[in-house]
Amino acid sequence: MCKNTQVFEKRQTIVNPAKLTMGVAAQICGACHNRGKSTAKKGSGWPVGYEPGKALSAYYSSTSFEKGDVKHVYANEFSKGHHQQFIDWQQSKHSSEGVTCTSCHYVHQIGMPQTRSQTGKPGSMQCFECHVQVNTNMAHSIHSFANCIGCHMPRIAKSAESGDIRSHVFVTLLPEDTLNNSQIPNSCQTCHKHKNDDLNDLQAAWKALAVLPKPEGKEIEAVEYKYTR
Ligand code: HEC
Ligand code: HEC
Ligand code: HEC
Ligand code: HEC
Ligand code: HEC
Q1: For the residues 164-185, what does the mean pLDDT come to?
Q2: Separation of alpha carbons 12 and 147, rounded Å
Q3: E strands, 145-203, where?
Q4: If DSSP codes are grouped into helix, strand and coil, which group holds residue 26?
Q5: Does residue 169's CB lie within 6 angstroms of at least one atom of ligand 2?
Q6: Which of the listed residues 16, 24, 29, 59 should we mutate to test ligand 1's pocket, taking the one with most ligand atoms within 8 A of CB?
Q7: N or C: which terminus of the chain carries fewer CB neighbours within 10 A?
């Protein structure tokens, strides 16, 4: 048999995530970007026996705060550790709405990736691929910049050092989350962390801005104008 045909036939055996349903495809990423225990082999930290296209949950049980893993997960089940993006993403609205890892990331791009994280667009530009219009109320009215990931993907997880990688739950953690439980970080203090910044003040500032509907302007009363010669 000609060598080329063999290569071609081999390719037919490769599971292509693009041809799988959204949930099954994301589980392929979840086989590695996850943390937990094998259900098949005691003591193994990877999904022994799992193959792309199969149901990951049959082979793997993800870690959680509830199960007692305080080292890798915060009390609100947001990731503290690295290579756990699947754990975060599963809790997100993106997950339930079908926005999956490969909606934002490309893999197997030939050559140098355009962005370090291999996203379609750099940083927050990725969000604008879908969120073309965002409300300008509340938290969105505070800042003069469009740093979506600054608030929605705060650097609260740890790879080499604390806070070097981003959350993938896409939920903004407010100052009150930390005020209610000091073990839970917030998005705001990844930037507002100067020594005199009081978290109560930051929460109050957010609360004041979060009042809806916004205060309305009052019509200026007519000024009586007397024309004198
Ligand atoms: C067989 C294991 C494995 C699978 C499956 C896998 N990854 Fe990875 N991925 C890795 C490893 C290992 C790294 C490099 C180490 C690191 O940067 O954490 C990496 C790195 C990455 C990075 C770059 C991180 C950086 O900062 O440079 C992205 C983005 C990524 N993977 C996304 C995905 C997506 C999306 C999928 C599913 C389509 C996927 N990965 C499937 C193991 C895997
Ligand atoms: C809605 C878009 C979106 C989805 C969905 C998404 N990511 Fe990301 N991901 C990003 C962005 C944006 C960054 C950070 C880019 C930057 O820092 O400039 C990132 C960063 C990463 C990194 C690098 C580590 C870091 O935090 O800097 C890895 C690894 C990664 N993502 C894996 C995944 C995996 C696995 C999934 C699915 C379970 C996933 N992502 C789903 C947008 C997304
Ligand atoms: C591939 C399309 C797509 C991309 C890219 C994308 N989103 Fe989304 N996003 C959606 C959809 C669909 C929903 C669910 C419908 C909705 O709430 O508008 C959603 C919902 C959300 C929500 C609401 C979550 C909730 O709990 O109500 C937030 C916040 C959000 N996205 C932030 C981001 C951020 C930040 C980025 C950039 C890192 C991003 N999105 C990139 C499609 C996308
Ligand atoms: C100052 C922090 C901050 C920044 C910057 C920010 N957001 Fe938000 N956003 C929030 C908060 C707080 C909420 C309320 C819900 C929550 O806690 O996630 C929210 C809600 C949302 C929602 C759900 C409500 C809705 O309007 O449909 C979406 C989608 C969203 N943001 C997208 C974005 C995008 C896209 C950007 C970048 C242009 C962005 N956000 C920038 C803090 C921020
Ligand atoms: C990515 C960094 C970053 C994040 C995350 C961030 N901020 Fe800011 N914030 C800034 C910068 C820079 C300014 C000043 C410039 C401006 O207005 O854009 C600012 C200004 C403000 C102001 C205006 C009043 C003042 O103190 O000067 C308030 C209030 C505020 N931020 C609250 C918040 C809250 C609440 C959050 C979390 C939901 C948050 N910020 C998240 C960087 C950030």
Answers
A1: 95
A2: 43
A3: none
A4: helix
A5: no
A6: 29
A7: C
Domain locations along the chain = 63-209
Give the Cα separation of 56 and 101 in Å (integer).
Answer: 15
- Per the structure block, which two tokens stand in for 24? 């099954």
Q: What is the pLDDT of residue 229?
A: 67
Locate tokens 């109560």: which residue?
200
Model confidence at 134, in pLDDT bands (50, 70, 90)? confident
Q: Is the dihedral of CA 193, 198, 200, 206 positive or negative?
A: negative
- 148 CB less than 6 Å from ligand 3? yes
pLDDT exceeds cutoff 80 at 37: yes
Averaged pLDDT, 46-71 = 96
- Contact present, 138 and 212 (Cβ < 8 Å): yes
Confidence (pLDDT) at 3: 66
**Residues in CB range of 156: below 8 A, 6 or more apart:** 74, 78, 79, 80, 163, 166, 167, 173, 185, 190
